[in-house]
């Protein structure tokens, strides 16, 4: 039907039902004087239920409408630590985010901690030539940036809760998240062995929480068993990137971490964007394997998955990672005048919380610390 026909059709219906439309017209306070037919009582009763504005006409009553409101304690801030000690390099595709050398980490984080930063998630970025190899040896190099940063932060900023991303892609020469067979496909058994060793190194160095993002089958169980065997499962939280979708929202992160695969893609181990059932299975699997926190990633395009995760993992914290592409998109939109940056940052995060997350990994964290104080 064309638009003009549609309008005609609508107006025909309207005129046919003109009495009804008059008695149900929503003019709060005017209903009584406007109608004097028998429909009036129905209309008033209808109006009683339809009066919602009082519930959100005041800033505080508006705030009360949210089941969950963003607090500083919900935020985890991603930090990129390089092996070049004095480095402080802005990441062009991630506005306001930097690669930090070890000497920069504490001076950078200290003021944020004073503003209420509670938690960081660490990513290592080996830059030295030859630092990457097929096994991702740099991931748990005792002199490497991640193990050094864990110990440094624990020592210098004892109030901070230190989460460490566990994956091989930042450290492998091929940029994949595991160890490969000669034909380039993923050797799951070896990858799980290696990833769980790396997780153990971080845990022993003092990480409060290890977060495997590699998506190899069975890694949660392997890490949990090693934590138990080592006698540290009571102090190391295991956060699983349970539902991590492949897609095009990780570009700026790969710039930042230098973790772009040198060939192929990650579709064999990251979930297909349409795979809601698969995500539910992955979440159940990771709970059964001993995960303590379930993460969904990316966040805003996967709100149904966050909601599923909260439903399946009812008694567990659910985290959502608002990834680099989401962050860069919001910045680009604000720069193009589509919306105000702060308003959109809050709106997108409110969506993530409403869907069921109680923890948000976000590059907006420093700004939220300021905005939440206002
Ligand atoms: N394992 C961590 C990531 O892949 C981060 C993704 C992003 O921020 O784009
Ligand atoms: Zn990876
Ligand atoms: Zn990753």
Order of helix and strand elements from N to C terminus: HHHHHEEEHEHEHEHEHHEHEHHEH
Number of helices: 15
By CATH, the architecture is named Alpha-Beta Barrel
Count the beta strands. Answer: 10
Written overview of the protein:
The protein is an alpha/beta fold and 374 residues long. It has a single domain (76-373), classed as Aldolase class I (TIM Barrel), CATH 3.20.20.70. It is built from 15 helices and 10 strands. Helix 8 links the parallel strand 5 and strand 6 (209-212). Helix 8 crosses helix 9 (219-230) and helix 11 (276-288) runs parallel beside helix 12 (303-312). The two termini are 51 Å apart. Mean pLDDT is 89; it is low at 1-36. 5-azanyl-4-oxidanylidene-pentanoic acid is lined by residues 165, 167, 213, 250, 253, 323-325.
Q: How are the elements arranged and paired?
A:
Blueprint: H1 3-16, H2 18-23, H3 31-34, H4 39-50, H5 59-64, E1 75-82, E2 88-90, E3 98-100, H6 102-114, E4 119-125, H7 145-156, E5 161-166, H8 188-205, E6 209-212, H9 219-230, E7 237-244, H10 251-257, H11 276-288, E8 293-297, H12 303-312, E9 318-322, H13 324-335, H14 341-355, E10 359-362, H15 365-373
Parallel strand pairs: 1-3, 1-4, 1-10, 4-5, 5-6, 6-7, 7-8, 8-9, 9-10
Antiparallel strand pairs: 2-3
This protein binds 5-azanyl-4-oxidanylidene-pentanoic acid and zinc ion (2 copies).
The site of one zinc ion (ZN) has 5 residues, from loops.
């Amino acid at each position: 039907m064309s638009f003009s026909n549609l309008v005609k059709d609508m107006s025909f219906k309207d005129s046919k039902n003109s009495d009804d439309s008059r008695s149900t017209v929503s003019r709060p306070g005017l209903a009584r004087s406007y109608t004097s037919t028998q429909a009036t009582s129905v209309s008033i009763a209808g109006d009683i239920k339809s009066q919602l504005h009082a519930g959100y006409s005041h800033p505080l009553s508006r705030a009360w409408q949210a089941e969950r409101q963003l607090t500083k304690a919900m935020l985890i801030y991603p930090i990129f630590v390089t092996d070049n000690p004095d480095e402080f390099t802005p990441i062009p595709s991630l506005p306001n985010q930097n690669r930090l050398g070890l000497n920069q980490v504490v001076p950078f984080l200290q003021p944020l901690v004073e503003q209420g930063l509670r938690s960081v998630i660490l990513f290592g970025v080996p830059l030295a030539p030859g630092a990457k190899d097929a096994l991702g040896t740099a991931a748990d190099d005792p002199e490497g940036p991640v193990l050094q940063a864990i110990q440094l932060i624990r020592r210098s900023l004892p109030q901070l809760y230190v989460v460490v991303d566990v994956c091989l892609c930042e450290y492998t020469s091929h940029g994949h998240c595991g160890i490969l067979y000669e034909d380039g496909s993923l050797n799951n058994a070896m990858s799980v062995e290696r990833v769980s060793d790396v997780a153990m190194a971080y845990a022993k160095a003092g990480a409060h929480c290890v977060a495997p993002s590699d998506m190899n089958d069975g890694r949660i169980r392997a890490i949990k068993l090693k934590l138990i065997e080592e006698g540290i499962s009571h102090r190391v939280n295991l956060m699983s990137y349970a539902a991590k979708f492949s897609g095009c929202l990780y570009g700026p992160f790969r710039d930042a971490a230098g973790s772009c695969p040198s060939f192929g893609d990650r579709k064999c181990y990251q979930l297909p964007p349409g795979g809601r059932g698969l995500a539910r299975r992955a979440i159940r699997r990771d709970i059964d394997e001993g995960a303590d926190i379930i993460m969904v990633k990316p966040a805003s395009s996967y709100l149904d998955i966050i909601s599923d995760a909260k439903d399946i993992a009812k008694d567990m914290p659910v985290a959502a990672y608002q990834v680099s592409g989401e962050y860069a998109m919001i910045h680009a939109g604000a720069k193009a005048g589509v919306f105000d940056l702060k308003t959109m940052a809050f709106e997108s995060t409110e969506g993530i919380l409403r869907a069921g997350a109680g923890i948000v990994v976000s590059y907006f964290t420093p700004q939220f610390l300021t905005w939440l104080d206002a």
